[in-house]
Amino acid sequence: MAKWLDNAIFYEIYPQSFKDTNDDGIGDFKGIIEKLDYIKELGCNSIWMNPCFESPFGDAGYDVSDYYKAAPRYGTNEDLKQLFDEIHKRDMHILLDLVPGHTSVEHRWFKESIKAEKNEFSDRYVWTDNIWEEPSGMGCLRGISDRNGCVGVNFFSHQPALNYGFYKPNRPWQQSADEPGPRATLEELKNIMRFWLNMGCDGFRVDMAGSLVKHDEEGKGTIKLWQEIRLFLDTEFPQAAMVSEWGEPDKSLLGGFHMDFLLHFGPSHYNDLFRCENPYFSGKGNGDIGKFVKKYKENYEKTTRKGLICIPSGNHDMERLAKYLHGDELKIAFAFLLTMPGAPFIYYGDEIGMRYVENLTSVEGGYDRTGSRSPMQWDNTKNAGFSKACKEKLYIPLDDGADRPTAEDQMQDENSLFHEIKRLIAVRQAHPVLQSNGEIDFIYAESNTYPLAYLRSSRDEKILILLNPSCSDADFKCTYSLSDKLYSFGGEVTACDGIITVPAGSFGFYKV
Ligand code: NOJ
Q: Nearest residue CA, atom 3 of ligand 1?
């Protein structure tokens, strides 16, 4: 089992926007290699890179046209292999982004599958057997070829759904997961995974992992499918890590994933904390954490207290954290993110408080996500050090504010967000109980009130985490002694007569 996940701290790289070394305005593998030491300096030891495979980029690469080939704009397969090697040299790991649910309409399989004559790929996608019948519960493409049928789509209209079967087929064209078409799709998925794992990647973040078997309301068919993948990995690649974009850890962990993301959609209440009118971590002081904690606890119990639920600082699909939180609020939010169970994920640029760039025209299917995908701000040279290309050629326009944060400035300032995160990571890495598998108990986490208190514990150690993002001092009844302070920020926490007071805008970690 992927032991390295126990203390993994991930850095998400959106390759388009990270670092361009061939001056075409788009990031590349060589650029990522150049910046590995920066990521390591921050303290992250693992990387998740968004899809980097050949694609027409109608959805930023989530529309793959060849799963076995790196997109030329980032480099060759050899360059990608070199990236893996450079990562491993630094004792780091990398997850590639696997998109099993759909391809691009440009994929060779799809071009074969739209043909009227039956061929090897006729059943690779979800097709009805008649142009007038749409597959229910999903969008579809129809009238695009001589084939008499409609093909289901998984996300955008140019992303036809791969066929893994229906949970309970009830139309003649619906296949069960055991039929040859769905089986062939699954075997091909294993081949794709084999190919990259053999080349040296350390596992996958899996896109829309819960979407594979259709009409599978409780996820049972999809869970079974992933259990088969787990068996295959256990046999051939036992160290490979699997992280799902599913948002329902009770299902994904049962399917054999090591970790699941809490997401900005679905039932998690993640946005109550970071992205809503008055999120919990803003200083407004009336945010709500109650529903989040209730759901988190439910999942935590269902996952047999494994705690392998990843809470990201953000990602390429949601608005930047710095749109809602500022200054010390960001530091307190990171104190939370870096002391929770499961591996933390830091979205590139969030460590310096990069802003959401407003009012951009959509790029590569980004729409309102485009503002979170702008080029990394490295320094104060041309194009913030991202690229030497002319400004007009940049993949997405930069934040053009004169006060935009840069990595260089923040690295020189001990009080910056970068340094706060670096210190928090160092504390986490010095205390296994704060890492992925340490248990969590919420001590004080009430709706519409502060502070937040939770205990991380193992047989060897117990650490009490106290956080108060609000702009008023906040207290609660608690009998723990606070004599052994591990780390704090802002004012000093005090304890008197069984009442602990956490000053406004502060946090503290105590060994108890
Ligand atoms: C989730 C990915 O994170 C998102 O960027 C993409 O557009 C959809 N899945 C479709 O693959």
A: 317
pLDDT (tens digit per residue) in 229-255: 999 999 999 999 999 999 999 899 999
Tokens 């769905």 appear where? Answer: 182
Q: Can you tell me the distance from the alpha carbon of 358 to that of 340, in angstroms, rounded to the nearest whole number?
A: 31
Q: Which amino acid makes up residue 316?
A: H
User: Does the Cβ of 292 fall within 6 Å of ligand 1?
Assistant: no
Euclidean distance between CA atoms 177 and 213, whole angstroms: 7
Reading the block at residue 319, the tokens are 């608005």
Nearest to 470 by CA among 203, 337, 294, 280: 280
Q: In DSSP terms, which residues pair with 153 in a beta bridge?
A: 139, 160
**506-511: strand order across its sheet:** 439-444, 452-457, 462-468, 506-511, 484-489
Q: What is the pLDDT of residue 398?
A: 98
Please choose, from the candidates 301, 461, 445, the residue with its C-alpha nearest in 3D space to the C-alpha of residue 453.
445
Number of Cβ within 10 Å of residue 55's Cβ equals 25
Angle at 149 between CA 146 and CA 152, to 5 degrees: 120
HEC profile for 190-232? Answer: HHHHHHHHHHCCCEEEECCHHHCCECCCCCHHHHHHHHHHHHH
User: Which atom belonging to ligand 1 lies closest to the Cα atom of 101?
Assistant: 11
- 87, two tokens: 């990562």
pLDDT tens readout for residues 84-120: 999 999 999 999 999 999 999 999 999 999 999 999 9
Helix (H) or strand (E) holding 98: strand 93-98
77-89 vs 180-199: helix crossing angle, rounded to 10 = 60
Give the pair of three-digit tokens for residue 147.
């084939």
Kindly give the interhelix angle for 180-199 and 220-236, rounded to the nearest 10 degrees. 40
Q: Which atom of ligand 1 is nearest to the CA of 102?
A: 11
Distance 66 CA to ligand 1 centre (A): 17
User: Which residue's CA is the nearest one to ligand 1's atom 11?
Assistant: 62
CA angle 227, 233, 239 (to 5 degrees): 125
Question: Tell me, what's the pLDDT at 307?
Answer: 67
For residue 157, the CA-to-ligand 1 centroid distance in Å is: 13
- Determine whether 56 is exposed, middle or buried from the number of CB atoms within 10 Å of its CB (0-12, 13-18, 19+): middle
Task: Give the pLDDT of residue 111.
Answer: 98
What's the Cα-to-Cα distance from 201 to each of 105, 229, 343, rounded to whole Å?
27, 17, 18
- Cα–Cα separations (whole angstroms), residue 200 to 85, 194, 197: 8, 10, 5
- 377 near 399, Cβ under 8 Å? yes
pLDDT digits (tens, 9 = 90+) for 30-81: 999 999 999 999 999 999 999 999 999 999 999 999 999 999 999 999 999 9
Express each pLDDT in 269-293 by its tens digit. 999 999 998 899 999 867 789 999 9
- Which token pair is 329? 């609020």
Tell the residue nearest (CA) to atom 4 of ligand 1: 317
